[in-house]
Predict the 3D structure of the following.
Amino acid sequence: MAQITIYTKSWCPYCHSAIDLLKKKGVAYEHIDVSSGGEAQAAMAKRANGRSSVPQIFIDETHVGGCDDLYALDAAGKLDPLLNA
């Protein structure tokens, strides 16, 4: 099973939506809250090639992007193969 990491902020509805999809898929994920900014947010931005918006989602070392990107992968039938790699 793939290693999934999602960076979020507690008040972000897109973050909650992305997490809901991951839960629906029944996959385990590492959740990193960057609500307070600081080192965690800086690490996220570095890993996401400068993107500072949330959520930022990674499947293994592949940067998926944000919530819309995650749902687009699912709609295209490409998310499940990534999750089950």
The chain has one domain: 4-83. The mean pLDDT is 96. The longest strand covers residues 4-8.
